[in-house]
UniProtKB/TrEMBL annotation:
Keyword ATP-binding: yes
Taxonomic placement: Bacteria, Pseudomonadati, Bacteroidota, Cytophagia, Cytophagales
Protein name in UniProt: Phospholipid/cholesterol/gamma-HCH transport system ATP-binding protein
UniProt keyword Transport, yes or no: yes
Coiled-coil ranges (or none): none
Length: 262
């Protein structure tokens, strides 16, 4: 379980996070939901320690992280797997080298064990035998899968994914969401997924925290989200639906155009 207490962050004169508290549960896919620019990525970076909050603290399973001693912070860091926005694979490394990388950095596992672990993780994300491929040879969805395999390779306790399905077509996006949820439950990981996509809410939102202009305005499960009395959340859901419908119409028009041109 990850707990955050009263997180504040200001850049210059712009208040980005304004006193956010909450709990992210173990074995569940916890979503940080909100429109673009509302502070989701900054909050995620505060949680993993890439950004230091001005005020507030984070605990991982009861251990204080923010402001704690370096060795305690490092020990927690070792248990964190991250899937960054845009998957961020090392382009000059093969799939195998990408996944092996955190094992080399974070453990003293011998080579043959590392390769076993790489193969286990590749199998788990449905990419057996992709070891020698280069990232440039992979589709967007496959890159995300490799990113997930790399994140879970060191046997993470906590998994953070920033917009894991951005840039993917809707079907691939759902598959990636589902994979994250399955892995979370299978290994009992505490997972936090940043998203602005209502599809993810419906598919995988065990627990959702809705952010709006740096504040937490609502928290609950996907079953309750349609019944919230929060105007900003209802507007967000409505706008999401309009955008999805508009995208669908656009895709249908493009398809029609392709048919016409033979
Ligand atoms: N390192 C930074 N320095 C200054 N401003 C930042 C920095 N990181 C993020 N911001 C600002 O904080 C706000 C929230 O950003 P972000 O958390 O990335 O939003 P999102 O919800 O889309 O992930 C934005 O206005 C962004 O410009
Ligand atoms: Mg972001």
């Amino acid at each position: 379980m990850i707990e955050i207490h009263n997180i504040h962050k200001t850049f210059g004169d712009k208040k980005v996070l304004d006193g956010i508290s909450g709990v992210f549960e173990t074995g569940k896919t916890n979503l940080l939901l909100g429109a673009s620019g509302t502070g989701k990525s900054v909050l995620l970076k505060c949680i993993v320690g890439l950004i230091k909050p001005d005020i507030g603290s984070v605990t991982f399973d009861g251990t204080y992280f923010t402001n704690n001693k370096l060795d305690i912070r490092q020990e927690i860091r070792r248990k964190i797997g991250m899937l960054f926005q845009g998957s961020a694979l090392f382009d000059s490394m093969t799939v195998e080298q990408n996944i092996e990388f955190p094992l080399k950095m974070l453990s003293d596992m011998p080579k043959d064990e590392r390769l076993d672990r790489v193969n286990t993780c590749l199998k788990r994300v449905g990419l057996e035998n992709a070891n020698k491929k280069m990232p440039s040879e992979l589709s967007g969805g496959m890159k995300k899968r490799v990113g997930i395999a790399r994140a879970i390779a060191p046997n993470c306790t906590y998994l953070f994914c920033d917009e894991p399905n951005s840039g993917l077509d809707p079907l691939t996006a759902i598959k990636i969401d589902e994979l994250i949820k399955e892995i979370t439950e299978e290994y009992g990981i505490t997972t936090i997924v940043v998203t602005h996509d209502m599809n993810s809410v419906i598919e995988i939102g065990d627990k959702i925290m809705f952010l709006y202009e740096g504040k937490k305005l609502w928290e609950g499960t996907r079953d309750d989200i349609m019944d919230s009395n929060v105007d900003e959340l209802n507007d967000f859901i409505f706008a999401n639906r309009l955008m999805r419908d508009a995208k669908k119409v656009e895709e249908e028009e493009e398809e029609e155009e392709r048919r016409r041109q033979g």
